[in-house]
Write a structure and sequence with these properties.
This protein is an alpha+beta fold. Helix content is 38%, strand content 19%. The longest helix is centred in the last third of the chain and has 29 residues.
Length: 968
RNA sequence: GGGCCUGUAGCUCAGCUCGGUUAGAGCGCUUCCCUGAUAAGGAAGAGGUCGAUGGUUCAAGUCCAUCCAGGCCCA
């Protein structure tokens, strides 16, 4: 009966991981890891809900790995870390997926299909994709409670969101306003700024210069001429109500033949070119008040020139066409001037009856050429050309967006901007520059949050309006039932059921029938509400209060960098709006995973790596280890399937080999860690004390780096330890494990205990990073022994033993390894194989320095020499000195270069005296410099008759070898 | 157009906070060694205008400025 299970030297990690997953399931380890910490201080983690739309890609594994490593670490250091999964269910992406499925295009089609049927499909789609995400989550070993996940489409969640919206409405922070927003005529909805930003493309649009004939002016000499107006959206000309000028810029009236035009002086050359005479120059303010004949007659009382501060002198003519329906600035000016909003375009983006007859029914962009033709025919066109610029398109359906005055609901986040900035100061960002860089800038430029969406699959805006215009915000189904006079407890709060609920307007003395306003809300609001809504938090219903208060704000969140404008913002905004607090204290902000050419992974490029390909081939540990330790987590990282092979070979197999080596010989020698007590550390051989000291340093650094949210540095330190363990400790100790048959000797016992202890500690160190292989090692080496729990994930994270740290030994061993490396090189260079024993190796170091004496056996064994001698310095070669720039630079300034030349010319006499510890005066230029030994770095040149390896700064130590009598 | 990040060997990346004169690692490639961890291990070699230019400095991969390229975010 063996103490340890035999270990297959050939390991298939995906199969191993399947076994571990089964163990975790059967032994219920995740739940027990929480129970173990019941009553411990909580460390709060929030899961940013993935949008359950589309299959998960490898870029979903990255945040999920970081969301796993820190909670696991914190659990192992004695915290209770509850982990509630979540799914983002609503939103346009889900709708578009269904539109594709059922072959609809646009809102009319959806309504014909039926909102009830459409939303049912959306719900099914979400559930289907959540299944894929759950499978991935489990497979990568991301421990999170999937059974208790919050779904943003659940009734409790929606009611919680309603509660928050009702409060905003009561506080006057949720308002309806006419604003110009980017609007997709195909999807039939306004887009958020973030969505708009997704779809900029460089396109060619017409650039037209149009005459606006002047009919009346404060300066009568202008009458008879025309304003020269520039636009790249001819289709907006039918909505023109005014022209803006820069009041302080000089404008000119120019003439050629019978034509007189007015434009900015600085734009003349580029727009009209040669052949025009300047008749007069006047400031923009002198043109203000001028009336003109609009390109298309529409309303009375407008069509004037006004002053504005946004008129550019970089392009155009300095005379800006204003169409309040189609531009934010235009609308602002129009309001100020009292102009009506001319809106000749319908929600579908086509001209209505209010447009000129020849474009009615045409999509606006298709109307451009017709309008240009019409202007030309009517003699209004001065010039038309193609103009290349970037223009936003719908990020989902590629329809050109229109800027469009529409009624929308807004959360007045500009009112809390200062508080957001304050609260941001309390947050630790990793990397730090995001705080005042990308994220801070975003907060500085805060605009009100356009919350409503004229769509179907989303949290319905809970506002009911009666014919008298009274708006009532409703906070729950119970409240809605009371207002409607019937029990609505079982109602699905989604459209269309909710649309059918009519209430009696509760306004004083009104009582008219009120119906819900049609919009749903931005899905980003849903996810930003998760700190409270995940618990169905609802003070009025007495629900989720304790859970929320216990877990707000979060200690830790982590997502990719694109969330600065997404979840990082909505989470914080809602934290401040509802609770006047940040929603999180530490954020790990990750870079993107890109393909081998540095391109973003996207379905359309076909460069997406399916995470299951990696998981089936190299396994979850390899994938996780790559994400955690390779490159910098905050910069984008290139991946290909091959990079994971390297992880397996370089790290996982190295560790596995050590593990398999240990188990093989432990079984062969009958080693049982419990049967024989470990020898006291001070009685173990120096190599054991060295690796044990390194282990303590590794433990200390891993803990420190993980506390600082730097899993990358922690992981790299562990990897270096494993390399030391494999390629130096085991390499040098191998023979100590060979005791076939007999009882292990005391030396073998020390080796077995040391290696066993290292492997058990490494398993615990690695548990948060590579939970599968860590568990495998633990299960075989530690579980059930010495009171260890049956899973590494129920263990405490290792603590360093400061008493075992021996810095001098570490330095000496590093020196020994360098000496050995040099010795091996000498053997190669002199072509004397290592299997050929030699009489001596001579090391050019003072004997006994840095504790080397204790380690000479290692050198001798490794190099296969009978003795290691330390050199009689004078006997070998001569000394050379180089300036120690760090010391001499500040003292000598430019003369340091002359000194360097002097030392280069030295025949060894100066350097020799310095090496002997003397202070030497060296002539440099016109003066002398006193050099102390510490002012130079000394190296050796070695004479003939020696095989020699040399290592330069900062550690001298030329290492010559005697080759005069090679045969021993 | 603006903000932030990135640019170091064929590939993936350290080093840049705090400047020090021969810029490192792993992988890949070539040659060789080892053969009781062997789908391992060791040594050597080739391979770099540290994105470009200018500046500060005795000294710049590192600091400053400008520019170029890529990414993300915002217009």
């Amino acid at each position: 009966m063996s103490t340890f299970e035999r270990v297959e030297p050939r390991v298939r990690f995906p199969e191993l991981e399947a076994r571990i997953l089964a163990f975790w399931r059967e032994a219920d380890v995740f739940r027990r890891s929480l129970e173990l910490r019941a009553g411990a201080p909580e460390w709060v983690f929030y899961e940013g809900p993935p949008t359950a739309n589309g299959k998960p890609g490898i870029h979903h594994v990255e945040p999920r790995t970081f969301k796993d490593v820190y909670p696991r670490f914190k659990t192992m250091t004695g915290h209770l870390v509850r982990r509630k999964a979540g799914w983002d269910c609503h939103g346009l992406p889900v709708e578009l997926e269904i539109e594709k499925e059922i072959g609809t295009s646009g809102k009319r089609d959806i309504e014909a299909f039926g909102i009830a049927a459409f939303n049912a499909r959306c719900r099914e789609s979400v559930q289907r994709y959540v299944g894929d995400f759950e499978r991935l989550t489990e497979r990568i070993g991301f421990w999170i409670d999937l059974s208790e996940a919050y779904w943003t489409m659940s009734t409790d969640y929606i009611e919680s969101v309603w509660w928050s919206l009702k409060r905003l409405h009561q506080r006057g922070l949720l308002v309806e306003a006419d604003k110009v927003t980017a609007y997709c005529p195909r999807c039939g909805t306004a887009l958020s700024d973030a969505e708009v930003a997704l779809g900029y493309r460089v396109v060619e649009d017409p650039s037209v210069y149009v005459r606006f004939p002047i009919v009346e002016s404060p300066d009568p000499s202008l009458v008879g001429g025309s304003l020269l107006v520039w636009t790249t959206t001819p289709w907006t000309l039918p909505a023109n109500t005014g022209v803006a000028v820069a009041p302080d810029e000089p404008y000119v009236q120019v003439r050629r033949a019978h034509e007189a035009l007015v434009l900015a002086r600085s734009r003349l050359q580029q727009t009209l070119g040669e052949g025009w005479t300047i008749e007069r120059t006047l400031p923009g303010s002198a043109i203000v008040g001028t009336r003109y004949e609009p390109p298309y007659a529409n309303v009375e009382g407008a069509h004037r020139v006004v002053a504005a501060d946004f008129v550019s002198m970089e392009e155009g003519t300095g005379l800006v066409h204003l169409a309040p329906a189609f531009g934010a600035l235009d609308l602002e000016v129009g309001r100020r001037e009292g102009w009506p909003v001319v809106k000749p375009v319908g929600d579908d983006g086509a001209f209505t009856e209010e447009g000129p007859p020849f474009v009615r029914g045409l999509f606006v962009k298709d109307a451009d050429p017709k309008i240009v033709d019409d202007l030309r025919k009517r003699g209004r066109l001065v010039r038309a050309e193609a103009y290349e610029h970037s223009y936003p398109f719908c990020w989902r359906c590629a329809t050109p967006l229109l800027y469009y005055a529409r009624t929308s609901w807004y959360v007045l986040t500009t009112r809390i901007k200062d508080r957001l900035l304050e609260v941001n100061e309390e947050v630790n960002w990793y990397p730090e520059h995001i705080k005042h860089g990308r994220y801070g800038n975003w907060l500085e430029n805060n605009v009100d949050w356009a919350l409503s969406r004229d769509r179907y699959w989303g949290t319905p805006l809970p506002i009911w309006r009666c014919p008298a215009g009274h708006d009532t915000a409703v906070g729950s189904l119970r409240e809605l039932g009371e207002l409607a006079g019937r029990d609505l407890g079982d109602l699905d709060p989604h459209r269309p059921a909710i649309d059918e609920v009519r209430i009696r307007c509760p306004f004083e003395g009104c009582g008219a029938e009120a119906s819900r306003l049609p919009p749903v809300i931005d899905a980003w609001y849903d996810s930003g509400a998760m700190p409270f809504a995940q618990w169905g938090y609802h003070p009025e219903l007495g629900r989720g209060i304790e859970e929320f208060e216990r877990s707000f704000p979060a200690d830790f969140i982590s997502e990719a960098i694109d969330q600065t404008r997404g979840w990082f913002y909505t989470l914080m905004a809602e934290g401040v709006l509802h609770f006047d607090s940040t929603a999180y204290r530490n954020v790990v902000c990750l870079g993107h995973i890109v393909d081998r050419d540095g391109r973003k992974m996207s379905k359309s490029l076909g460069n997406v790596i399916d995470p299951f390909d990696v998981l089936d081939r190299q396994g979850a540990d390899a994938l996780r280890w790559f994400l955690l330790t390779s490159g910098s987590p905050w910069s984008s990282r290139r991946v290909s399937l091959e990079v994971f092979d390297e992880i397996v070979r370089r790290f996982l197999l190295t560790l596995w080999n050590v593990y398999a080596f240990f188990v093989t010989y432990a079984i062969a020698d009958g080693f049982d860690p419990e049967a024989t007590p470990p020898p006291p550390l001070e009685e173990r051989p120096v190599l054991d004390r060295w690796i044990w000291s390194e282990l303590q340093l590794t433990v200390a650094e891993a803990r420190e780096r993980l506390e600082a949210y730097d899993a990358t540095a922690a992981g790299r330190r562990i990897e270096r330890f494993v390399d030391d363990l494999s390629n130096w400790y085991v390499r040098r100790s191998r023979r100590r494990f060979w005791n076939p048959g007999g009882e292990p000797s005391p030396d073998a016992l020390a080796a077995f205990h040391t290696l066993h202890g290292c492997l058990v500690t490494v398993a615990a160190l690695l548990a948060p990073f590579t939970p599968f292989i860590a568990e495998e090692l633990w299960r075989n080496l530690a579980a059930g022994r010495s009171g260890h729990p049956d899973s590494v994930h129920l263990a405490d994270y290792p603590e360093p033993d400061p008493a075992a740290i021996d810095p001098a030994l570490g330095t000496a061993m590093a020196e020994v390894r360098r000496i050995v490396e040099l010795g091996r090189r000498v053997r190669v260079e002199t072509r004397i194989r290592t299997r050929q024993p030699l009489r001596a190796a001579v090391v050019d170091r003072p004997a006994g320095s840095a504790g080397l004496a204790a380690l000479v056996d290692l050198i001798a064994e490794e190099l296969n020499v009978k003795a290691v001698r330390f050199a009689d310095r004078a006997s070998i070669g001569r000394w050379r000195a180089k300036p120690n720039y760090r010391a001499l630079g500040p003292r000598l300034g430019a003369r340091v270069q002359a000194l360097a030349r002097a030392l280069a010319d030295d025949d060894g006499s100066i350097a020799g005296r310095l090496a002997a510890g003397e202070t030497v005066a060296v002539t440099v230029g016109d003066g002398a410099v006193e050099l102390a030994p510490s002012d130079v770095e000394l190296t050796r040149e070695v004479g003939v008759g020696w095989g020699c390896g040399e290592r330069g700064r900062p550690r001298r130590g030329a290492r010559p070898r005697d080759r005069r009598d090679p045969r021993a």
